[in-house]
Write a structure and sequence with these properties.
Blueprint: H1 4-11, H2 15-22, H3 30-43, H4 49-56, E1 61-66, H5 79-92, E2 96-100, H6 105-109, H7 112-118, E3 123-127, H8 136-141, E4 146-149, E5 158-163, H9 165-178, E6 184-187, H10 194-209, E7 219-220, H11 226-236, E8 245-248, H12 251-263, E9 273-278, E10 291-294, H13 297-313, E11 322-324, E12 327-329
Parallel strand pairs: 1-2, 1-3, 3-4, 4-5, 5-11, 6-7, 6-8, 8-9, 9-10
Antiparallel strand pairs: 10-12
Helix pairs in contact: 1-2, 1-3, 5-13, 9-10, 11-12
């Protein structure tokens, strides 16, 4: 197996000099550096990235703790788009991603900090990790640069990014009111995530702004899944006092709500209006076309990566939470009922 000692012998220099050339150090003469590089190319030497990482304390890897409540993993319709754009920026900067599995018993017992240090990652992305995870305080205090999405993680080397969930929810309610709706239900978040909590806050603020009643029986918990939206909507429609519109805290719940509305004999977008949140790619296959609040997923992933690089490169960097604006996408599932009220 070819080593740096073989390169050093052929070039007539020390192994330390070869190491400096490999790591791009500037304290090696130009002629010597060119000679070493030529011999490396001639012999086809490939440096051991793990050994180099131990020597330089820079592994050129970013760790990702990726979780979601439903254990859908990379199949998650919202998180996968964020990960794709995050990966692109990371790769363009010469880094690789290390994904930490979370479904092995040993991994449940070991902390985020311990696992990150075992892999010698230069930084971390936390995606889908619940607010209640006991590992969070340790990772904030560890000194490992860390960026989270939809999780309010703040510390000396930690920051977070999220969409304007409150503003997005208010936009959804404002649109329903503009279309004449006064009886509006909300399918919320049973997990008490930051996005779910903020969307409920936005819903209530908008309802209060328009002086509309907020009925507890019309706010039902959901789990961001299609089945969760279906069951909550089915329960909602069993009442004698029905809303004219339902706002779902996630698109997958809205897709489930569509099925429950149809089963009850109602027409989506005519008898009962519907709005989702996220604008997932799957919506292109859904009929009728769902009105929703769009999260700018590609921008979220890109900015999370860029912010993480700032945290990794400058220990004195003063970070602050990043909020990405949302956008109302009007399609076919909200009826105009002004003339009916």
């Amino acid at each position: 197996m070819l080593t740096i000692y073989d390169i050093a012998k052929k070039a007539g220099v020390s192994a330390a000099t070869v190491s400096k050339v490999l790591n791009g150090r500037s304290d090696v003469g130009k002629t010597t550096a060119e000679t070493v590089k030529r011999i490396i190319d001639e012999l086809g030497y490939q440096p051991n990235s793990i050994a180099r990482g131990l020597a330089t304390k820079i592994s050129k890897t970013v760790g990702v703790f990726f979780q979601d409540h439903l254990n859908t993993g990379f199949r998650h319709h919202f998180l996968q788009d964020i990960l794709a754009s995050f990966k692109d920026v990371i790769g363009e900067n010469g880094y690789d991603l290390v994904f930490f599995a979370n479904n092995h018993p040993d991994n449940q017992a070991e902390t985020f900090e311990a696992r990150a240090k075992n892999r010698n990652v230069d930084g971390l992305l936390l995606l889908g990790v619940p607010r209640t995870d006991p590992n969070l305080s340790g990772i904030v205090q560890s000194g490992i640069p860390c960026m989270s999405i939809d999780l309010d993680l703040i510390g000396p080397c930690a920051n977070y990014l999220c969409s304007d969930n409150i503003g997005g929810a208010m936009m959804a309610v404002d649109h329903l009111v503009e279309m004449g709706h006064k009886k509006i239900a909300f399918i919320s978040d049973v997990f008490v995530t930051k996005p779910g909590s903020d969307r409920l806050i936005g819903f209530k603020k908008a309802m209060e702004k328009h002086q509309l009643p907020i009925l507890s029986k019309w706010i039902l918990p959901g789990d961001f899944s299609e089945n969760g939206g279906y069951l909550s909507t089915k329960q909602l429609l069993e009442s004698d006092h029905l809303p004219t519109a339902i706002f779902c805290a996630g698109d997958m719940m809205a897709i489930g709500a569509m099925e429950a509305i149809r089963e009850k004999g109602f027409i989506v977008g005519k008898d009962i209006s519907l709005i989702g949140f996220d604008d997932i790619t799957l919506l292109k296959y859904v009929t009728p076309k769902l009105t929703t609040v769009r999260q700018k997923k590609e921008i979220m992933g890109q900015l999370a990566a860029k912010e993480l690089f700032k945290l990794m490169s400058d220990s004195n960097y003063s970070s602050s939470p990043i909020t990405i604006e949302t956008e109302l996408v009007i399609r076919d599932t909200v009826a105009n009922v002004k003339d009916e009220n």
